[in-house]
Amino acid sequence: MSETNLINQKVVQKKLPKRLTKNKVIKSIFFACTLIGLVVLAILLFDIFSKGIPYLNLEFFTNFSSTTPSSAGIKGALIGTLWLMMTIAPISIILGVGTAIYMVEYAKENWLTKFIRVNISNLAGVPSVVFGLLGLTIFVRGAGFENLSLGKTVIAAALTMSLMILPIIIVASQEAIKAVPSSIREASLGLGGTKWQTIKNIVLPASIPGILTGTILALSRALGETAPLVVIGIPAILMKTPNSIFESFQALPMQIYNWAKLPQADFQNVSSAAIIVLLIILILMNSIAIYIRNKYQRKL
Length: 300
Prior knowledge:
mainly alpha, about 0% strand, globular
């Protein structure tokens, strides 16, 4: 008996209009959900750009923070944020990718490995304020040992933020490394390559697009987070810029948070201008990372 004879065409024709109607209703609901999100985003961006653009002038980038809205600037916060990102990136990428390589390529499959993986995944969902408390205790105060205390410095904040984004980088890197076909590894080992040569020359280049995607998301989260910086006590007003990672600094999220809670209406506009700068930095970071990712994808 042919397969078409097993289908009752009368029953199908009878149910077809109802199924098509149901499909249209579901499609409309999903479209409405998407539209609501886009409309809210558009309103938010319009409000921020309409308030902030008039304040984006040269003085805004060259002045330090001030109690007067007309003379307030983001020089200290912008340079401090760049210091923070330049410190977070190498720490989190080296530790995150290194951990992922060990967990996938070297660690044996046992209950301990599974336990560690589960806890790494769970850490990705822990609120950022918890990492702030951890950073305050360990890095800022040195866990009670004065000699280990780093104070409210760039390196203390970078280590705290790195702890926060490490689970994201590790999970994304693990999945990217696992996605490399095992046949490629076996071919490399079969040709006489060592384990490390296979990882360095075959596995890592093939998994870089996936690793970069996770890293982009993680660094973007670190750039916009305020709660850990508030908890570890990063100053909202500081009339100097850091010259090393062991000096105090300002950060854009802290500056925006401080201005946004002030009662004067003009500070809301200055805060919108700082948000625009933060958005532009995020877009630039993502664009560079996406370019690098696409470049590697074309080579594979």
